[in-house]
Amino acid sequence: MTYPQRSIGPFTVSAIGLGCMNLNHAYGTPPDTATALALLNTALDLGCSLLDTAALYGSGNNERLLAQGVMHRRAEFTLSSKCVLDMIDGKRGLDGSPAAIAKTVEGSLSRLGTDHIDLVYLHRLDKRVAIEESVGALVRLKEAGKIGAIGLSEMSAATIRRAHAVHPIAAVQTEYSPAVRNPEVAVLAACNELGIGFVAFSPVARGLLAGAVRDDTYEAGDIRAMMPRFVAPFLSRNLEIVARFERIAADAGLTPAQLSLGWVLAQGETIVPIPGTRSIAHLTENMAAATKPLGSDVLAAVDALFPPNALDGARYPAMMQAQIDTELLAGETLA
């Protein structure tokens, strides 16, 4: 059986892609190299044909991992990476200037061991630089043959429209899951109107909707320890909702992750979720979600459980929220 496919801009990709970030970045101790390489190759074996990385992840080591592990299978997948967020003088930095974008993309090409990246996103909006200038830098890289298409990450409908007026945008990437509904404010409508694909990162809510969060004792280096909704006093209330979500999944014969991914897929034919995982068993479970369509009764039950702002606590800590351009939900807390 051919794995289900979807279109994102000019690309035809698997209905579920793979976010590669947590193989090197943000969720505590990364797996050893052999485990990470096995997971990447198993993803391709299962039919996954969209791999998502970024210059920032692991200070470039995520891109190096892909170079080591799967670039010999380059014809089997669409490769996406990101710029603007990068390591600058050894620290995480935000720079949307054309010079910084060109430098970051050149670094990505070198680390990936390639002369062409299919899709490059502006990782965040640098409010000090006009979006038109940042997009223009990617247009020049496209004209030089170094990238194939342009994307935006965590940006508002207004910014998307300004960017799209400079050059067609292929994809917008933003957090989206039953528990995180910000794209429904305006971004999804803008993407549908302009013919832009939508890539949903954290489609299982950073593990919350995949049975991976039971308390707030996280490993050192786990980004969730800084996120208000993943720690006390908010997490206990959120886990009560998660328990009800897990009962819906069990009644439907699905794992919680499959229910979450199936819900995301059901929101539109041009939406592609990119869950990340370090487990081949979880990878297999996730990929199977595209072959398990949800009934209207199940979708309705999830929607009833997760109205906008269902979770307590802010989505990001203040420092990270300052770099987020995506619209807030009505009444959304920032603390």
Automatic annotation (TrEMBL):
<dbReference type="InterPro" id="IPR050791">
    <property type="entry name" value="Aldo-Keto_reductase"/>
</dbReference>
<protein>
    <submittedName>
        <fullName>Oxidoreductase</fullName>
    </submittedName>
</protein>
<feature type="domain" description="NADP-dependent oxidoreductase">
    <location>
        <begin position="15"/>
        <end position="305"/>
    </location>
</feature>
<keyword id="KW-0560">Oxidoreductase</keyword>
<dbReference type="InterPro" id="IPR036812">
    <property type="entry name" value="NAD(P)_OxRdtase_dom_sf"/>
</dbReference>
<dbReference type="InterPro" id="IPR023210">
    <property type="entry name" value="NADP_OxRdtase_dom"/>
</dbReference>
<dbReference type="Pfam" id="PF00248">
    <property type="entry name" value="Aldo_ket_red"/>
</dbReference>
